[in-house]
Amino acid sequence: MAKGKTKAKKETPMMKQFNAIKAKHPTALLLFRVGDFYETFGDDALTASKILDIVLTKRSNGAASEMALAGFPHHSLDTYLPRLVKAGQRVAIVDQLEDPKTAKGVVKRGITELVTPGVSMNDNVLNVKSNNYLAAIHITKKELGISFLDISTGEFFIAQGDQNYIDKLLQGFSPSEVLYCRNDQEAYKEIFGDTYPTFRQDDWVYTSEYGYEKLTSHFGTKNLKGFGIENLPLGIIAAGAILNYLELTEHHHIDHIHQISRIQEDKYVWLDKFTARSLELIFPQNEGGIPLIDILDRCVTPMGARLLKKWTVLPLKDKGGIDARLDVVDFFTKEEDIADDVITHLRQITDIERLISKVAVGRVNPREIVFIKKALQHAAPIKKLLENTSNTEIRAIADRINTCNVLVERIEKEMQDNPPINPAQGNIIREGVNAELDELRSISHSGKDFLQKIQERESERTGIPSLKIGYNKVFGYYLEVRNTHKDKVPAEWIRKSTLVNAERYITEELKQYEEKILNAESQISVIETKIFMDLIRAATEYINPIQQTAATLAKLDCLLSFAFNAIEYNYIKPAITDDKALDIKEGRHPVIERQLSADDPYVPNDVYLDTQEQQIMVITGPNMSGKSALLRQTALIVLMAQMGSFVPAKSAQVGIVDKVFTRVGASDNLSKGESTFMVEMTETASILNNISDRSLVLMDEIGRGTSTYDGVSIAWAIVEYLHNHKKAKAKTLFATHYHELNELAEDFPRIKNFNVSVKEYQKKIIFLRKLKEGGSEHSFGIHVAQLAGMPQSVVRRSEDILDHLEKDKRKEKNKEAIKEVPKENYQLSIFDGAADPVAKKLKEEMEALDINTMTPLDAMLKLNELKKLLS
Ligand SMILES: Nc1ncnc2c1ncn2[C@@H]1O[C@H](COP(=O)(O)OP(=O)(O)OP(=O)(O)O)[C@@H](O)[C@H]1O
């Protein structure tokens, strides 16, 4: 070696091991097990110390530089891991794969689990009431494929469609992580922005062959026809990408994922993403708001709560399916005693859907196995109760509950009632299960008894009253003598350590018993673990029936939730019909009514809409009078009815609705750089382009985001369009401040005017909240300003200005002016949309024609020319 140069220190073997694993998973944060700690190194340590607020230190890597280090005790994994994952980290748990005591050289280590936001079985990462979905998207120019998986429950879905549809699904499923192809980065960002944590995979994963092969080999099928997804090639690619990701994250035991289903778009009411948001179905729009789900959800099981969320965003469209649910709810509202008995047992049932998934992935602990048993034991009386009813729908539910008696008996026979979570802690298996185990236990116990006797005997013999027997890992069992009695210690005792106030000794005799006890204990642990593992293996045979039972109990839980709401809040059974009318008598808003006191209750209102007589209700009324509430309650009642729930009304006839479109309130989207008005127009355009004869449209103050003239014109034209649409007479509630729109009812037969009434009393307004036929004259905006505490001078001045404007009769002129616009301009014609240059040209050409002076040949030639123009 050249003089003056120091020998470059080599990496320690452990750091070499760390670097090798890190190189394979550069984007994951490694929790590296070292002895009793999980350590993080380098950049990972910086990240972990920040997120977890743990101390950052340095470690000599053996190399010239020092490395950042941050760690925590291994038993705190459940506390720290969720915090890392929730902060968006992908965390690789690197465990010691062999016993450090017997390892030669550096302990073998490997990743035992890669926990990412979308792939987690950890109870602390998961929310009991929500699914935790991983999504994969495959993007092509024409369409997109998508797949969702919740590994904690085994639910696996697939779909394919245009950007709007996929975006809507993403909103509904709200995945915790989205996978896409590395090459699609730009396209993905452009379409979906950065709403979700993402992970990119290599392009070879995103091919048809790979996806198809992955799915068929996972399910052990020749093709995918049985799942009804064969014709969704893009969805299959996405689903393949999900299975690939499970491999990458070391999730190899996934037998509980035993089917994949197509998301059947046509089975459910279409709610565009604005509607789900503005009706506040799952999330409130403003902090502190209450979404519908909070009102509906009285579920007592986690799987029930999760299913109810799905039902809420996916109301049904087929009468049979809805009626089946309503019949069960009806039964329970009439048979309250049975409902009470069922719910009492249901309350005792834990999350068997997730527990059985843990069995499949081999992560179930002894206590959880006992929970599964208890759950099935409570499912049995539920099955009995339901079987004995006269209702066929309820008996069908009973049929689907499988109480897995053989498994229950085996768990009951083998497992202690209250075993510890960690099998290594011992005492998980009952006595009488295994003779060898029983014998070893008696050796261990008698050994311990004997130790006790040694202590008593020696205490008497030596005259040391405070003599204690203890145990530690370093030198096993010992006798502890306080310093005051040190002089009484016999010569044959061997001193092992000195503490401040005491000394510890071992003896030959102690060592002998120690060996016996420790031998027995380690064998006990081996036998207990083996019996437990055998039991888990046996339980894997029950994955399907337990999943089915879990799904059935979830459904039952949701229906009971509906029934209890109906009983307590006076909801009624809606009549679902195949016609197109909606007839709600004395309907109430399910959320607002709960917030009001009994002295000042919600004022119910009637709403009637159909496609023949009263297709569009134009609702005027002052600010704060309750227009928005009326619109929303109508949609919520329809959606609740189609979910299978009773509804807050005196009576309700609901002709099946296929799509609900809502444009309610301002949903600012300033973060995306769009103005409120632009958003409003985009949403409205999407409504107008998608309506059908069965759609329900709610529009609230459309046009208010621009000048009054623009606003009135747009609102007017939209109402006309909805009325005149050839194929789709969408039922519409149109709330507006523009009284000019009341004129529409004069010319259009299916438009009717209504107003939410108020009373004026001593220059103040009293809100009556009652919907009445007829238009209204003014807005009372100034009164509302006054109510809001506007300075008196401003209120007075605005009253003067209003007076002046009204006297000027400009308002009247405006109305007249609109009415004077030739009607044809509003009619749909082939020239609709002056923006279309071809249509414009055609129109000009046709107008310029003088048919009287044309020969038949001229006419033919001209026609040919026009036809060319069209093509
Ligand atoms: N039928 C009702 N019974 C009792 N209270 C109601 C009723 N309808 C609405 N409210 C109460 O009145 C408040 C205002 O209602 P809402 O927002 O629907 O008014 P609005 O007419 O849409 O007002 P704006 O035009 O200012 O948006 C609601 O927050 C609700 O608490």
Keywords:
44% helix; alpha/beta; Nucleotidyltransferase, domain 5; MutS, DNA mismatch repair protein, domain I; DNA-binding; binds adenosine-5'-triphosphate; MutS, DNA mismatch repair protein, Chain A, domain 3; DNA mismatch repair protein MutS; 6 domains; disordered N terminus; damaged DNA binding; elongated; 29 helices
Spell out the blueprint of helices and strands.
Elements: H1 13-24, E1 29-34, E2 37-41, H2 42-52, E3 57-60, E4 66-73, H3 77-86, E5 91-96, E6 109-115, E7 134-139, E8 144-150, E9 155-161, H4 163-173, E10 177-181, H5 185-192, E11 198-201, H6 208-219, H7 233-248, E12 261-262, E13 270-271, H8 273-278, H9 292-296, H10 302-313, H11 319-334, H12 336-346, H13 352-360, H14 366-387, H15 392-399, H16 405-414, H17 435-462, E14 468-472, E15 476-482, E16 494-498, E17 502-506, H18 508-540, H19 543-569, E18 575-577, E19 582-587, H20 592-595, E20 605-609, E21 616-620, H21 627-643, E22 651-655, E23 659-663, H22 676-688, E24 696-700, H23 708-724, E25 731-735, H24 744-747, E26 751-761, E27 764-773, H25 781-787, H26 792-807, H27 810-820, H28 837-848, H29 856-870
Parallel strand pairs: 1-5, 7-10, 9-12, 10-11, 13-23, 18-22, 21-25, 21-26, 23-24, 24-25
Antiparallel strand pairs: 1-2, 2-4, 3-4, 5-6, 7-8, 8-9, 14-15, 15-17, 16-17, 19-20, 19-22, 26-27
Helix pairs in contact: 6-7, 10-19, 11-19, 12-14, 13-14, 13-19, 14-15, 14-16, 16-18, 17-18, 25-26
The structure holds adenosine-5'-triphosphate (ATP).
